[in-house]
Amino acid sequence: MKKINVTIWSEGLDPELEPRAVALYPEDINTYLAGFLGEEADFEVNICSMSQPENGLSEEILTKTDVLVWWSHLYDDQVSDEAAERVVQAVLNGMGLLFLHASLGSKPAKRLLGVNSNVGKYREVGEMERIWVVNRSHPAVEGMEKEYIEIPGSEMYGEPYGIPTPDDIVFISWFEGGEVLRSGVSWHKGAGKVFFFSPGHEEFPVYYQKEIQKVMGNIVRWLKPVCGPKITFRGEIGSLEPIKNPVKK
Fold first, then answer.
1. Rounded to 5 degrees, what are φ and ψ at 223?
2. 3-state secondary structure of 223
3. How far is residue 85's CA from residue 114's CA, in Å, rounded to a whole number?
4. SS3 181
5. E strands, 32-167, where?
6. Are 99 and 106 in contact (CB under 8 A)?
7. Which residues, listed in sequence order, are joined to residue 29 by a DSSP beta bridge?
8. In the chain, what are the domains?
9. Which residue of 8, 154, 188, 243 is 20 to 30 Å from 96, comparing CA positions?
10. In what helix (H) or strand (E) does residue 9 lie, and over which residues does it extend?
């Protein structure tokens, strides 16, 4: 069985600005995500971070990546334009990309989904979030025991949320304060796929929940590349069949 090569990328946590987050994820969020995703027999997991050369998004790393898991929220502008463009091109050529929590503010998200891809309401008071399944046929819900997941304490993101109309809406969240959010949605981009899964504020132990871990594993499997034909983009080409009476320039 060929394993899915998963690269988990994070911008890193600042001990001075984010002490509660560091207490939950002392070795960074990417390391924690790699811990439970790495337990999946069909995954080969690696971690990268913004502090590495080429922001941890070199051509070599992306070429080896089937699915890129991206977590960021404060330092999106510190990712170089070159690194962001490499991610975009990798997706268009087949790589899967999972944007977590606030990552729609990242440069790759804005280039793939639009510059207003993370405009919306938010509130950080640790309210309950109930994530409802609204597409029971999507592979992301494989093996779920209930039709919803409850997170005891979460950050609220609310509609209207500035994302383009998705190809699929898989999850919708309801928050204790009354707001709702399209919290699990997907798009096809070129030969690749993109999924946004919103739960995962750094100051709440959302990723500790087994139900969330299961859904994330399902999403990664859905995002893996399709082994289709190789396409060469090279501008004007000749025809496969003879063309009668072609116009001469």
1. -80, -10
2. helix
3. 14
4. strand
5. 43-49, 67-71, 96-100, 121-133, 148-158
6. yes
7. none
8. 4-115+183-223 (3.40.50.880)
9. 154
10. strand 4-10
